[in-house]
Write a structure and sequence with these properties.
mainly alpha; 2 helices; elongated
């Protein structure tokens, strides 16, 4: 059974994972651009909007925990 409680470093590892995923995505888009000469603009916009949203929601959760004193 999976435990719902996460350690204190979960948010830090999640942020690191998102940063690494963004770096890998950027490298892949650059490779596609070099091969085809075309940039997938909608995909790039959607990807970074998604990751920005995830980081924003994570910061909201963290701020609420700080307010509650957890």
């Amino acid at each position: 059974m999976v435990s719902c409680s996460k350690g204190p470093d979960f948010s830090k590892s999640l942020v690191l994972g998102i940063v690494l995923a963004n770096a890998i995505f950027t490298a892949a888009v650059l490779w596609v651009f070099l091969r085809t000469g075309s940039e997938p603009q909608v995909l790039v916009g959607a990807w970074f909007a998604f990751t920005r949203g995830e980081l924003w929601y994570l910061s909201v959760i963290k701020r609420e925990k700080i307010k509650k004193g957890e």
